[in-house]
Amino acid sequence: MNTPSENGTPKPSSLSIALVGSGGSGVMTAGSLLLEAAGRAGLYGIMTRASGPQIRGGEGAALLRLSTRPVFCHSGHFDLLLAIDWLNADRFAGEIPLDEKSYLAGDDKIPDYFVQTGANIRDISFKQLSTQAPGLRPNMIALGLIGAAIGLPMEELEAVSTKLISKKGEDAVRASLAGLLLGASHTSLLDGIKQIGKNLDPRTENPPDLWNISGNEAAGLGAIRGGIRFVAAYPITPATEVLEWLAPSLERIGGVLVQAEDELASVNQLIGASFGGTPSLTATSGPGLALMTESIGLAVASETPIVVVNVMRGGPSTGIPTKSEQSDLNIAIYGLHGDAPHLVVAPLSVGDCLFTTQWAVHLAETLQTAAIVLSDQSMGQARSVIPQPANISFPTKRFIQSEAVENYQRYKTGGSGVSAMALPGLAGCQYTADGLEHNPRGTPSSRAEDHAQQLDKRHNKLVQHDYGEHWAQIEGEGEIAVITWGSSLAPVQEALHTLAKEGINIRLIAPRLLLPVQPERMAVALAGVETALVVEQSHGAQFFHYLRAFYAPQCELQSMALPGAVPIRPDDILKTIQKLREQK
After folding, report:
1. What is the DSSP letter of 56?
2. What architecture does CATH give domain 2-208?
3. Is the CB of residue 350 less than 8 Å from the CB of residue 48?
4. What are the tens digits of pLDDT across the range 401-427?
5. CA distance 497 to 506
6. How far is the C-alpha of 356 from the C-alpha of 219, rounded, in Å?
7. 417, 378, 286, 367: which is closest to 63 by C-alpha?
8. 469-583 maps to which CATH number?
9. Could you report the per-residue pLDDT of 476-518, keeping only the tens digit for each?
10. Which of the listed residues 260, 326, 475, 571 has the most CB atoms within 10 Å of its CB?
11. Residue 428, phi-psi category: left (phi > 0), alpha (psi -120 to 50), beta (remainder)
12. Beta partners for residue 27, in sequence order
């Protein structure tokens, strides 16, 4: 990503850095501190984590991109790969693209793969430097080197480091600050990175008001803003941080989080709490969602609102828990047995995890059904420095039966399809809320007419609702369109912005509402489009087949479906679009 300089030549406005090291080397800590210090200095950025499936320890990589303007994905090139040590670092080779313009900084045990990229090698042993004084940590030396090389104010690096390490005592703080200064004294090794750092130009005065947040934290905040006050869940990678953030946050506002014994128990606890009148949510990933599907059907049949945040990971089965993929689309759309209309929504960025989760709570409560939020590891565990998201409020209010009536019909048909829900204890308004089909009073029934009425009721209330402009993000014009969803939006947007600078206009359509489908709106969005490229991160092209099944667009559809664990990059999309344009 470039911006013009004063003499008209482009200058880089973003810098990509990878820190790698074995378990305990502190690369994730160093990366997090670097991102926080950059944000305090007015820079935008994103940090993703790469690690193996180990329960604890093991090699890891902190992948960062810092920029003078918002960035939401990594580019196709890393400027710097810095290694605390090289143990198993080649496992991340596919996630850290390097070339002759890149720099390698570390000791002389560089894996052959990285040497063969042609990157500029700078020999520095952080572990050896750490022996110069007691308590020095290699990761803090590395942090000082990078921070100083790109021009971050030392006071910002010291402030974020002190805040994190102060609980370990004054000696630890002094050693950490000494490590920062020691690293900063070696910036001559990274003259090329220093030049890019000058172009970044961190703001030392009046930096913008930016948020440093992960997608999982944003989803938690969206849940609370939406009104969630009860959470039951079983920890699972990569969704656990949603629960870790919600636990103390709910307690502060009088809510409750329960760690259930498994996913089956957690979803059933949600249904019970919601039946009692409390908006309820759980967070899980693919294996947990698979276990929950029967009870999600119970929520649909009993019209009890619940929200399930599913942070997708590589599958099937246990798959790759620490890598991202958009391959839970099919189970979210089709995974409930019987005709069980429900909501499926998908955030489009780290910041949008807040809005979309809040919207999901609103829709579930308003329409009295189950909502599945499809986030993924790429957004959920990424930390991003972003502009403060808008504080949008919804008129969320569950339709409650507030007073006793004769012949109360919990599942009354007609109208909008949303019927008044009595809370336990209201005299004369008791009803059966289970998975059996029922008549309008809630009495179990196997009569064909009752079944047909209730099927229509549950279906109509979703398809008749007006979801407004939130259903999708639509940008641009052109005879070629790109249709994408979820975290795949970020690299698509960057690719299309690059093309726009060259005068090439491509339309972008990114649905946020995946179920119920919106055929009329999609037809308007695709008007005039001759060819649409469908971009997604799944091996089976699930989103491509979803579009063909539900929307049957009149334009030609072409699929760009790439599986995890390597993320889709803007360069991949640019090359594919170029081929499409050459075919026209």
Report:
1. S
2. 3-Layer(aba) Sandwich (3.40)
3. no
4. 999 999 999 999 999 999 999 999 999
5. 9
6. 8
7. 378
8. 3.40.50.920
9. 999 999 999 999 999 999 999 999 999 999 999 999 999 999 9
10. 326
11. left
12. none
